[in-house]
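hey can u run this one w/ 2-acetamido-2-deoxy-beta-D-glucopyranose bound, need the structure tokens asap thx
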Amino acid sequence: MGSSFPKDFFTGLSFGKTLLVSGLVLYLILVPFFTTQVSQIFLIKWASSSQPVIPKDPSRTNLSHIAFGLLGSVKTWPHRRGYLEAWWRPNQTRGYVYLDKPPTPDLLPWPQTAPPYRVVDNISYLLQHIKPRFELMPRMVHGILELFKEEHDNMRWIVMGDDDSIFFVDNIVDVLAEYDHTKYYYLGWHSESVISNYWFSFDQAFGGGGIVLSYPLAKALVKDMDGCLIRYAQSTSADLITMTCIADIGVNLTPHKGIHQVDLHGDFSGYLSAHPKVPLMTFHHFDAMDPIFPSMDRMESTRHLMKAANADQSRLLQQTICYHRQTNWSFSISWGYSAQIYERIMPRSYLQMPIETFRPWARGPKPPFYMFNTRPLSEDPCEAPHFFFFESVYKSISGAELITSYVRARPRGLPACSSSGNHSSADSISRIQVFSPAKKRIQIDRCECCDIIRVDNAKAKVKFRECKIDEIIA
Ligand SMILES: *[C@@H]1O[C@H](CO)[C@@H](O)[C@H](O)[C@H]1NC(C)=O
Ligand SMILES: *[C@@H]1O[C@H](CO)[C@@H](O)[C@H](O)[C@H]1NC(C)=O
Ligand SMILES: *[C@@H]1O[C@H](CO)[C@@H](O)[C@H](O)[C@H]1NC(C)=O
Ligand SMILES: *[C@@H]1O[C@H](CO)[C@@H](O)[C@H](O)[C@H]1NC(C)=O
Ligand SMILES: *[C@@H]1O[C@H](CO)[C@@H](O)[C@H](O)[C@H]1NC(C)=O
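ok here u go:
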């Protein structure tokens, strides 16, 4: 546009002419500027509410390129199979659960709903020579070789886990599709407990949360498997042996905050209500904690969470925060899991810190116990939230929205918060309904925003949308 004016246009103009011309310039500049802004808003809306967000690229990584290796045992299978069956997609997910010995007759016929099983290789020829400190450790690492041997055709990624690992496969596909599978990658994340990382390593992927290897890395690791197990036979941990051998290949950990070892005990709801802003990929150790939903057992809880996961994994546990100005309440939604009302305006950065409802796996002598900041459980009415848990998910009649409902877990049992005005408490609210676009949300550079569209005596309605370009959430 500037090129339509001669270069010396502004030189030698009288004042009046300048005014006139600058009006013209403003006009010329502003119109296209507004147009661009409008079309940007339009584009964002369009992208989040119509199908082809991901171009149909035939070379894109999909579920068929990922091989899962799950380490189990005949002893733990009967009470843990439900964790794998909750996410396994028969005839779509590929891989095996590795058992320490052949299944006993009562476990047969093997269920179609579970990953097919394999019995781990007998590597006693190797163990005789290396005399490992714990025989189980090399056997577990050897599982990578056993999976690779069978599943290397059209395979791009290996994902190793345990028989109590819960995987969110749509998100795993979307995350891995962003990486070049022809390069060397080792993805995982550390333990939530500081002391576990100190004992083992801050630089290793913890196996129950999941160890993710790209094809070339898996191939190199498998090629030198015997050498690796011999070199590190004295190690006390299979995950540590894996990391050590990968380091010998020249590859280091790429941390991903969606992978969860869950080295925690007790009530996990504080963490699940403030998940880091990345796609959720895995959970481990549900067996070692309280059930994640009140009045459900662990298996029911797992299946319940999968109802939300099957509707929209891209939003699952993503925390969305908005404020109700008329009452000075903060709403925090962890999509598909929980909703909270605070009777005070609190900054997003504060609400993103998990409330410490849980305990560390093992406690060091003094804090810090966790690899993240926490907020204390509080009895202060201006600090303690009203807690609601995921109840159901429906598609709207038009098909454009998903409606998730969250019901009150328990009465809060505290007076109203009076410091930010003397208003009524949220005690009467028994249900929160959340309306979110029925389309996967791929962009994660920014959170979603929301509006409180209605609050009455019993119910609150919240609508998700993309944040406006310069919107401040405060
Ligand atoms: C996955 O990608 C392969 C190409 O590598 C293609 O043949 C296959 O149909 C795709 N599968 C799905 C389920 O999209
Ligand atoms: C998986 O495929 C096999 C045959 O290929 C079929 O017999 C079986 O019913 C399928 N299982 C499911 C759960 O679709
Ligand atoms: C593994 O192989 C050794 C011989 O190499 C044999 O003595 C042992 O019984 C085998 N173990 C199992 C569980 O089959
Ligand atoms: C909300 O809080 C502000 C300051 O914290 C206060 O001035 C205002 O009166 C409050 N509004 C209500 C409705 O309580
Ligand atoms: C709040 O309102 C009640 C009456 O509804 C009154 O008794 C109380 O003193 C008020 N508290 C504050 C801090 O204004």
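The chain has a mean pLDDT of 88. anyway lmk if its weird
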